[in-house]
Amino acid sequence: MRDMTRLHDVTLTPTALLAVDVVVFTLRPGPVEQSWQVLLIRGQESESSAQYALPGVLVEEDETFDGAARRALSVKAGFDAHDWYLEQLATFGSPTRDTRARVASVAHIALMRSDDLVQQSMVAGTSVEWIPVASIPWDALAFDHAAMLREGIQRVKGKIRYTWVLFQLLPPVFTMSELRAAYAAIRDPEVMHLSTSNMRKLFGRLIERGVLVQVGERAQAKGRGRPGDLFRFSGPVTGTWARELPW
Amino acid sequence: MRDMTRLHDVTLTPTALLAVDVVVFTLRPGPVEQSWQVLLIRGQESESSAQYALPGVLVEEDETFDGAARRALSVKAGFDAHDWYLEQLATFGSPTRDTRARVASVAHIALMRSDDLVQQSMVAGTSVEWIPVASIPWDALAFDHAAMLREGIQRVKGKIRYTWVLFQLLPPVFTMSELRAAYAAIRDPEVMHLSTSNMRKLFGRLIERGVLVQVGERAQAKGRGRPGDLFRFSGPVTGTWARELPW
DNA sequence: ACAAAAGTGTTTCTCATACACCCATGT
DNA sequence: ACATGGGTGTATGAGAAACACTTTTGT
Predict the structure, then answer these.
(1) What pTM value is reported for the model?
(2) B223 CB-near residues (< 8 Å, 6+ apart)
(3) Treating both helix axes as pointing N-terminal to C-terminal, what angle do A176-186 and A196-208 enclose, rounded to 10 degrees?
(4) Residues 118-157 of A with CB under 8 A from B
């Protein structure tokens, strides 16, 4: 970056390859237990026991990790992820993780709004599958992708409790019920038992501060019952609650 | 790790170098504002503006990141860090961070108990300095070490609030006052105004669960005032509070 | 004896949870 | 009409914060 305070006495011959892998999460309509889903790629190399892998690519010479991760989503899954929430998770680089060369993979997590799903696609020879987090085929994952998934799941579970990333998984406009359902799907189905009354009280602070804006309309009624008021999130992606949410 | 589901169609020529850098924190006696300190290496290459750097080394062929990080602490600062708390922070690998080659550095944070400081040392040509976090020379840091420090500081500040890592910075036996002071030094000096009464009530849960054990003795009296009861932490390093601490 | 630091117990107030009741929509 | 889901307001209980008072040390 700025100077050469280090490495002056060593060779600069490259010794490793850099890769990125992405754990993509989304929320889909359906039963709470299956709503939170992750994207896996089913490979065509059927001779091995590893049927599933995370989307990943090798990092190119002049490419940032962020750029490589978004390219992986494009190349491996056919998604245009240029405006998705993306954050670095951790780097996996055990000397033995790949037998052919030292490969360090910088794992990321990405959050896709379920209504972006219009584009679902099929990429030459591989197929893209959304799997509920509750039923991940842990034993059929390539490389150390199981460890990446475990860490990614923990990261998201923890982070929705004190930051505003949850809104990156919701559509632009949503009801309190949808917000509660999103929370329940990721953290704990028990949250579904919370009354809308208490939800509003908790999120009332955000409404006062203008982070949640009530759009002047009601949602489309679906099925029986009164449709809920619609809200729009207008705060910074990186924002946090003053206090951690109680559940 | 397990098979070859990927990379089958690309060359495996190494293109990058792997490094580790470590942000080492400790707590030292003294005024609250200067108690939380970080380790910086003052380099001898005085021609450049970057006077300070984090301890770091290149990762060797058969070395884990964890191993390389502990070696960096040994080689660059003369510490035996084999039993220190060490965790991966993030990987910094901008294509332009080093002009000579693509170097990806896996940053770590390490926590040193201040009473381990017996070993303080001097390594050939470089000098090890403990700098209060409040007075880091941001403009005199090599590479992207300023970014690493910023992230490291945020990580620790956040993590002491919901995990038990704070105890990794305290001596094996400590008083409630020392615990409060440690918290105050990292999070907010305001915490110093909390009464010991309220502290005990908050940590009372931990005492009941046996995570904090009251050693049957009082601390050495220093100066005026009654010495505090001594406690010992006996929980898992990775433990978390049921609820986030209120401050 | 007094100041300073630590321990114990009580009071107050905030806020999470629970509950009772009203509103809107589809069958 | 009634069942179902959403919204409003109130009551209850847990716990954080504040405070008054006692205990132990050094000067």
Answers:
(1) 0.91
(2) none
(3) 100
(4) 142-144
